[in-house]
Amino acid sequence: MAYTPQQHDVVSGEQYRYALANFRIAHEKVEEQRLQLQEQEKQVALLRARIALLEGTNHAHFGVSKLNGNSVDDFSIKNAASGLERQINRWAADVARNPPVPLNAIRQAALIDVFDDNPAELGPQPPNATGIQVQSLLRHAASKTIAEGIVNCLIITDSPEANIQLTRIHEHIFSRDPTVAAVWRRQTFSAAVETCSLDMSLFFLSEHMPNLTKLLNIEADKTTLGGAVIQVLEAAYEFSRMLHSAPSSSGGTVDAFYRAFVPDVGSTMNPGHIELVKRCLTTERGEPDRVGATIFPGLVKVTRGMGGQTADNMQTVVKRAQVICECALLGVAQAP
């Protein structure tokens, strides 16, 4: 049997040395990149620790879910919002159940406030106002006051002018660097007023509910039917402080802050932004219907894209606005 010698792949010494040199270079490059990544992770950790120190927190991880601690998440917001919603509803229901003036007068005043002194936009109303209509419009007026006057404006001092300026400063900083804006906002809130003063509450009412304030004789006495709304505004201020003064759960690299929104009476209903509290057969039949009243504001989380100062703000709905449709509010028959 003949012996067949095995053939081996043989490379020259020069090719071997060339391959070995390339392998060594590639290995060194990989090791250099690994060290760079390690250094970047260290710098990020140091930056997060520095931010936590400035905020007065000691969390090793951003986004720890605590309602009464140092951070806030979407679930905590929804729970706190539910408590505020019940207070608004209780006040509106008490006024509608035992009206100090005729329901028609309350409805008219609420419509004027809701439409900023131009209620003709809504169109003709039924001759006699109903309890649910008045209650819903009162809730809308209170929701609008809370959204525009308290949540969307940083309430740091007892001076409305100073608060407006501070809100503008925050928006400017946020447009440049969300992380710096977060530290600034939370540090500023650490020195904010502890409660919403009576003067501030009356200012909010005079700005956003002037006609209802006058008609219901809302003054300093919180024990009256109308004056009980002051306690609602005080609770709304606590809710606003929770939103703005604690780190969000968006992560350590992208900061977020919250804004409230109130769909206008008579506007088209957007399913992504609203939650109907009463069944609307008109919409289920595929026919268009409109917002009758917003009984609690919606909330969006505002973040900034990764494009630096050229990036656009992104809004994520955290809680949809609670709405009653126009046909339910006006008592229009819904039978097909």
Give me a quick take on this structure.
This protein has 336 residues and is mainly alpha-helical. The chain has helices at 13-55, 74-97, 103-114, 131-151, 160-176, 178-189, 198-208, 210-215, 229-245, 281-284, 326-330; strands spanning 257-261, 274-276, 291-296, 298-304, 313-319, 321-325.
Rg is 29 Å
Strand order of the largest sheet: 1-4-5
Oligomeric state of this protein: single chain
Helix share, percent: 40-55%
Count the DSSP helices.
11
List unreliable stretches of 5+ residues. 58-70
Cα separation of the termini: 99 Å
Shape: elongated
Taking the sheet with the most strands, its summary is: 3 strands, antiparallel
Total count of strands:
6
Strand content: 5-15%
Task: Report the average pLDDT across residues.
Answer: 80
Order of helices and strands: HHHHHHHHHEEHEEEEH
Structural class: mainly alpha
List the helices and strands and how they pair.
Blueprint: H1 13-55, H2 74-97, H3 103-114, H4 131-151, H5 160-176, H6 178-189, H7 198-208, H8 210-215, H9 229-245, E1 257-261, E2 274-276, H10 281-284, E3 291-296, E4 298-304, E5 313-319, E6 321-325, H11 326-330
Parallel strand pairs: 2-6
Antiparallel strand pairs: 1-4, 3-6, 4-5
Helix pairs in contact: 2-4, 2-9, 3-4, 4-7, 4-9, 5-6
Which descriptors would you attach to this protein?
single chain, 336 residues, mainly alpha, 3-stranded antiparallel beta sheet, 3-stranded mixed beta sheet, 6 strands, 10% strand, elongated
Tell me what you see in this structure.
By secondary structure, this protein is mainly alpha-helical. Helix content is 51%, strand content 10%. It is built from 11 helices and 6 strands. It has helices at 13-55, 74-97, 103-114, 131-151, 160-176, 178-189, 198-208, 210-215, 229-245, 281-284, 326-330, and strands at residues 257-261, 274-276, 291-296, 298-304, 313-319, 321-325. Strands 1-4-5 form a 3-stranded antiparallel beta sheet. A 3-stranded mixed beta sheet has the order 2-6-3. Helix 4 packs across helix 7 (198-208). The longest helix has 43 residues, at 13-55. The radius of gyration is 29 Å and the shape is elongated.
